[in-house]
C-alpha cells in the first residue's frame, strides 16, 4: 500500500500564473496558437469533458504550461463525455499534424483506439489524471489515486470514531481514478476501521446521478459518514440534498455527517474552513500542468524514462504496460486549508 499523500509546496510565481489561467474562459485557453510562432511544434489536447471546476482548471493549466514552454497548443477539443467523440477528436488532431497529443481520457479502455491511432501516426500520446489501459502511452501524469483513497479513509474513519455506516459515492471503475480511489478507500477501511459498514454507489462522475444515488440511501438508512470520490462533481448536489434533510451541519453541531472528499475545488476548501467537510484530499493540479509540458518536451526530444524515483519527488511506476508518474497530493484540514499552493485557493 502506498503511503499517505503529503504536500509539496511550489514556487509562488508559478501559483500566480495558475491563478490567472484558472480564471480564463475555456474558449480562450488555446487561442495563443493563433499568434504563436509558426515554427513552434503544435501540440493537441483532447479533453473528455469541460463541465466541472477541476477539469476546467486542469485543462487551462496544461494549455498555459505547454504554451509557456515554447510550444504551440491548439485549442482543446471537448468530447462532452462521449468516448466515441474523443476518438474522433484525436483523429482530427492527428490530421492537423500535431507533434504530440495530451489527453484526459473519458474511459481508460475506450481511449485505446485513439492511442493506437496516434501510435500509428508516430505522434507521442500523454495522458493526464486518467490512464489508458492499452496502446503505447509515453507517460501518464497523475496522482496516486489509491493513496488518495487511503488518505480519505484515514481522515473519515478517525473523525467518525471508527464506527457507524459510511456512504461511499465513487466514480466509474472504467476510469483509473474511479477504481483506484475506491480500492484505496475500501482496503484501508477493511484494515483500519473494520467496525464501519460501507454502502457503495457508482455515480458515473455524474452530478445528477450522485444526488439520486445518495437520496435513495439517505431516505432508507441512517448514515454517519459520506465519502465523495470527487468534490468537483459531487459536493454541490450533496450539499443541497443534506440541507433539505437538515443534515448539512458543521463539525460539533447536531446533525453533522462526517464527510471527506477528493479533488480540492474552491467550494470544497470553503466547506473545510466552515467545518462542513472534515477533510479533503487535494489533487496536485499545478504539477499536472508543469509535468504535462515537461513530458511533451521530453517526448519530442526522444527522452526515455524508467520505473523508479523521479527527479521531482514522485515515483514512476508501470501501469497497464505503460509508465505513470505518480505525483504527490495533499491532505487538507482546517490547519492547512489556506495554503496558497492548493489549486482550489488559486481558483478563487
From TrEMBL:
It comes from the Bacteria. Residues 43-303 form the Periplasmic binding protein domain. One of its GO terms (molecular function) is carbohydrate binding. It is found in: Cell envelope. GO terms for cellular component: cell envelope. It holds the Pfam family Peripla_BP_4. Belongs to the bacterial solute-binding protein 2 family. PANTHER family: D-ALLOSE-BINDING PERIPLASMIC PROTEIN-RELATED. This is Periplasmic binding protein domain-containing protein. It comes from Subtercola boreus. The lineage of its organism: Bacteria, Bacillati, Actinomycetota, Actinomycetes, Micrococcales.
